Structures are given as C-alpha cells and as structure tokens.
C-alpha cells in the first residue's frame, strides 16, 4: 500500500513534496519519542547511580533501579555499581523498544487516517460526478 502511494506520487511534484514532508515529520516524531524515553530513564536512573551508598552497612538495603534478589552477595562498591549500571542499560534498552513501538503505532495511525481521508475525498468526488450526470 505504501509502495503504491510512492509510485502514484512520483508522477506529481506537489504530491511528492507532501509525502516527503510527512515522512520528515514522522522521522522527527520518532526521534522525539526516543529522546523523551531516554531522558526519562536517565532522569530516573541517575539519582541511583550517583548516590553514595555504603555497601558495608548491613542494616539497610542499597537502592537499585529495579528491586531484585541477586544470586550472589553484593559486598563491594564495584559489584554494586556494576549491577546498577547493568540495570540502567537494561532499562534504557527497554525504553527504546517501547519508544520504537509507540512511534511505529503513531506512524501507522497517521498513515491510515491520511489514507482514509483521501478515500473519503475520492468517494465524495465520485458521488458528486454521478449526481451531475
């Protein structure tokens, strides 16, 4: 369906400019969604990464990005920071996947609504031509 639209618009310069404008807008929306998802994770995770946590204190549990039980004992600062940075990378990747799915759905909805609008305009012009006859 999209390939047919590109082929149909390739013959008309105005339609080609409109399609290129919509493609650029979709690209900008996708970039904005991914940047916002990344910024939200960075804002959430930076507080925990930069926190000065005393690992040797057994009375309190150190803060993690995700509450989880580890199969090993976190008894040094290096192990703790490694676990938190791994969690941070995991959350960033998950947010990118969620952002990509959101952008894909948004692009598909925009395309379908535009296709539907063109179909309705085409039907109205055909009906008005039949009424004139």
Automatic annotation (TrEMBL):
Keyword Transmembrane in record: yes
Transmembrane segments: 88-109
This protein's UniProt keywords: Membrane, Receptor, Transmembrane, Transmembrane helix
Entry protein name: Odorant receptor 92a
